[in-house]
Amino acid sequence: MNQNNNEKWMEDALNDGNQEAWETGKLGRDKASAEAVSKPRNATKPAPPTSIRLPSELREALKALAEEEGLKYQTYIRHILTKHVKSKAKSA
Predict the structure, then answer these.
(1) ∠ at Cα 10 (8, 16), nearest 5°?
(2) Which of 28, 12, 21, 10 shows the shortest CA–CA distance to 66?
(3) What does the pLDDT read at residue 29?
(4) Domain limits of the chain?
(5) What distance in Å separates the CA atoms of residue 37 and residue 29, rounded to the nearest whole number?
(6) What per-residue confidence (pLDDT) applies to 1?
(7) Residue 67 in this model has a pLDDT that exceeds 60
(8) What are the residues whose beta carbons fall under 8 Å from the beta carbon of 81, sequence distance 6 or more?
């Protein structure tokens, strides 16, 4: 997956356009920095956390694949799920 595809699905999945900047610390890592950034116009309610049990081998494999893509593994999992749901919605 190339850089442009990474950016597009992250923006589609997260709808704030700032995910990479937050993850890299560009927008700050402390509360004061977070409060200084204005709320995006298209901001939606934050997604509730979801918990899922994965076998250790699957989790490690996902981490390795995510690293190859230059992503954190939870972001990578969100990408996989988003892509799957969009694919199913198109075929329905």
Answers:
(1) 105
(2) 10
(3) 67
(4) 3-91
(5) 12
(6) 45
(7) yes
(8) none
